Amino acid sequence: MQPRILVRKDPVRWGIISAANIGVRGVAPAIRASANGRLMAVGSRDKQHAAEVYSFASNVRIYNSYEAILEDPEIEAVYIPLPNSLHAEWTLKALQAGKHVLCEKPLAPTREEAEEMVAVAQAQQILLMEAFMYRFHPQIIWALEQVRAGAIGTVRLVRASFSFDIRSHPENIRLQAELAGGALMDVGCYPVNLFRAIYGHAPQSVAARVHTSSPTSVDQTTNAVLDYGDGCFGILDTSLGLPSRQGAEIVGDAGSITLPVPFTPGNYDMTAFIMKDGQMTEQSFTGVDQYQLEVEHFAQCIRTRQDPQLSLNETLENLTTIEAIYEAAGMDWPII
User: Fold this and answer.
1) What is the mean pLDDT of residues 273-281?
2) Does the keyword Oxidoreductase apply (predicted)?
């Protein structure tokens, strides 16, 4: 008889490293609203600022350092929304402290750094997942199910766009080379992730162009064509200097799926469209908090000891693709 594995039912106890906006507005409220998680503490190098922005969570401990989160024995899982250049350093420290880690995308600036993070997580038998929250939204799950069921035939083309304009804020961390910023790293990684989710593997080759304000600055705009073999392509455009816009079109040899707001739909109702045999049909989705779905999934994996839906192999392949896009565009990466 196989031994019975007891699954704990108590909420996973979370800590957040830094008072970054995505944590304050997105992930922290999601953890607090989750059915299987509890936000215990936030670590910040500016305790007063953290206390102010987390005033909505009066029962959450505010520490004056990142290290304090890792030293807290009550905390089981850590969410890391630091600048890209700090992902590897603090993920490794968290893993070595025995904490499960949900790290913001991209997992690291380079595949080499990410491989070290993955190796430590596997050696420690601790969960590590890249935080692509959009993958947990019902519209994305539905779209991938349609693709796998052959509803639009064999997919031959995926177009995806994601941009917003921060040119008036040159101090923004997304524009800082030393923090591994850039359009591709910040928002272009979403289309790269979507292409991989649809095709199931990395591209065979890449052609790309980037626009930068100087040889030592990050990419403000990146455009790329990714060849997945056998006449299958991904077309990406992303920018930090164009109006806020996003969209995805998945084209098969028997039809197409259009997602008007694939990556950050908010909590609003969404509608996707299937075009097939000259007829367009709609698929509606009730608004959800995709951050909450993400943290609930990760917490469930911690309790059930199952691998997360987003595999580390997928993450590594996507980082290889990002590096290939920069290389194809003739851009040294990382810049510093």
Assistant:
1) 96
2) yes
Residue 2: predicted pLDDT: 56
**In a shared domain, residues 117 and 150:** no
Range 244-264 burial, b when 16+ CB lie within 10 A, else e: eebebbbbbeebbbbbebbbb
Q: Does residue 309 carry a pLDDT above 60?
A: yes
Is residue 58 domain-shared with residue 195, that is, in the same domain?
A: no
- The conformation of residue 292, written as its DSSP 8-state character, comes to H
Do 122 and 268 lie in a common domain?
Answer: no
Q: CB 266: neighbour CB atoms within 10 A?
A: 11
Q: Are residues 90 and 113 in the same domain?
A: yes
Same domain flag for 172 and 308:
yes
pTM for this model (two decimals): 0.95
Span 263-268, mean pLDDT?
A: 96
pLDDT > 70 in the chain, percent = 98
Do residues 287 and 138 share a domain?
yes
Same domain, 86 and 138: no
